[in-house]
Amino acid sequence: MSQAVHLIQLAGSDQSFPCADNDTLLRAALRSGIAFPYECNVGSCGNCKFELLEGVMSSCWPEAPGLSDKDRAKNRGLGCQSRPSGPLQIKLRTSDKYAPQHRPVRTTATFVSSHAITHDLSEFKFETATPVAFLSGQYALVQMPGIAGPRAYSMSNVGLINGNSQTRQVMEFQVRRVPGGHGSAHLFDQLAPGAQVEIDGPYGMAYLREDVERDILCVAGGSGLAPMVSIARGAFSSPKMRDRKLHFYYGARSLQDVCGLDMLQALSDWDARGHYQAIISGEPDTANLPVPYLRGFAHDAVAQSFGERLQQMEIYFAGPALMGQSLLKTLIDLKVPMDQVHFDQFY
What we know:
Elongation Factor Tu (Ef-tu), domain 3; Rossmann fold; 6-stranded antiparallel sheet; 6-stranded parallel sheet; 8 helices; about 30% strand; globular
């Protein structure tokens, strides 16, 4: 069934873009190359706010926390949750840094296979009907049949390297089973090889910066493993980065949650350029941890290991919200320039 397409005009400029009534303003704008500011893409952060001047729209999530009652009273909406019911005029402050490196594509994708990484974390492989260009560290939105709303999952396979013009038709996601989570339950329990989903991407600003001449620190926890593994794979595949060292810190609650090292050791030259450190936060003091592992939290381990040297590193992180908040505070306290710190807020 074809969808109606509406013209969205940006007030005070000559910019406009088409948006289908089953698309959101944010994603349609990015598909047209409009530099629409955003971070989480799931209604939580509020960075994609705009003001509706003319027209009628609907919200996918009226109670989204990224929008306050004051915002609603002033006719503001969230780009990632707003759909047009006809032509619109909106007031929006664009920012060049949000201009998409590769415009998002909506495509059907066929589930190929999955394999377990830990007791509750698995990698899922899809083949897309349309080639998709993405950068290491980015994510996509996966819409599964019968599940309300898409789920944001980061790609774990390597993205485009060194301006490579080839696009990918295989996308791999590392997903943790969430207790009571409908999306992860569908992936783990109901998806059979040959099943189809819709994939919309790429999105995200925490992609690998190949031109930066600094060593890299990746910090991951939970399913945040996926974008950090993608970053590592990209860094070890890029001719521009063959002299860069990469430190990979993985925070886990217990020994059974530790993962990622085998994927990194498969990278060419890992033993010479790479370093992996696991940090365990939830094992009792009486538990014997393997010698290379540390006890505590990832942000403390990072501070103790590197201190002010973090100011000379390019830093990427993904994982549980509390881990991210603690790490960000640590980096700020150590006066790390924020333009060297990259993360996406949907985790």
